[in-house]
Design a protein that fits this description.
CATH topology of one domain: Muramoyl-pentapeptide Carboxypeptidase, domain 2
Order of helices and strands: HHHHHEHEEEE
CATH architecture of one domain: 2-Layer Sandwich
Helix content: 40-55%
Strand order of the largest sheet: 1-3-2-4-5
Shape: globular
Strand content: 5-15%
Radius of gyration: 48 Å
Length: 272
């Protein structure tokens, strides 16, 4: 017995590959294009940063000529300093010194300058001129610096004399004298100095000067052990060359029965 078969359904026409699946290439290209566009956009800032960085480098390159141009000015300042440097005349004969050829910063011994021989705190406070009036006082003070101040400096180290030369106006102010009064102190001739060494007994300093220096007069002034070993000061004088022999006189100016008196010798009390 035969069975009849149902007629076969006609097949649908086959779709072409173009019709079956839409092409993804345009989408891929579009995606690729869209993905590359930000990259290109981000690349631009990097490029601009490089330009900016290069631009920032340029001022550094332009600094070199500025430094080169500044060099002559530095040499000029150095030259001006050397032009005003201390004049060293520590070995010059005293007879060659005059008021016309001396400067305040002229070195007249190994460690002393000319201005240290006229300085005075009292003169500064009261505005009193204290300059050498003639070549004689100038040369006497230089002689004193070389023969008295410098040996003490060599032995005990740096110090500044309390006073060396004191002109008549300063002497009047110091001793409360009238305008017509003229001082007979060796300070007014540039032949004396008052000194003290911090931390050293004033009496011991006077004794050392007696044993080691050429001098005209040594006075241990206002020394009082009750006030400390450094109380008072030492007055040392030295006659200028060609003005006579030095006396080698030793005195102390100290308290005796409530009054200041001069007594012979170097001592702390009026009793021998």
């Amino acid at each position: 017995m035969t069975t009849s078969k149902a007629p076969a359904k006609p097949r649908a026409p086959r779709k072409t590959s173009a019709e079956a699946k839409p092409s993804t290439k345009p989408a891929i290209k579009a995606a690729a294009k869209s993905s590359t566009e930000p990259a290109k956009a981000s690349a631009k800032p990097r490029s601009s940063r490089v330009v900016k960085e290069k631009a920032a480098v340029k001022p550094i390159a332009t600094q070199a000529p500025a430094n080169i141009a500044a060099a002559p000015a530095a040499r000029s300042r150095s030259a001006s300093r050397s032009a005003t440097a201390t004049v060293d005349r520590k070995n010059a004969p005293i007879s060659e010194f005059t008021l016309a050829n001396i400067r305040h910063d002229t070195r007249v011994s190994s460690d002393f300058l000319i201005y240290e021989l006229t300085r005075s705190e009292l003169a500064d406070r009261r505005g009193i001129p204290n300059n050498f009036p003639t070549d004689s006082e100038l040369r006497a003070a230089i002689h004193l610096a070389r023969e008295v101040l410098q040996p003490i400096r060599d032995k005990f180290g740096s110090f500044t004399p309390n006073s060396v030369f004191r002109g008549h106006p300063l002497e009047r102010a110091l001793k409360n004298k009238p305008a017509s009064w003229l001082s007979t102190s060796q300070h007014s001739r540039g032949e004396a100095c008052d000194i003290e060494i911090v931390g050293m007994s004033t009496l011991a300093l006077a004794e050392w000067a007696r044993d080691n220096l050429t001098f005209d007069q040594i006075i241990c002034e206002c020394y009082d052990p009750a006030k400390g070993p450094n109380s008072g000061w030492v007055h040392i004088s030295l006659k200028a060359p060609g003005t006579g022999e030095n006396r080698r006189q030793l005195l102390s100016y100290i308290v005796d029965n409530g009054k200041m008196v001069y007594v012979p010798g170097l001592r702390a009390t009026a009793m021998a």
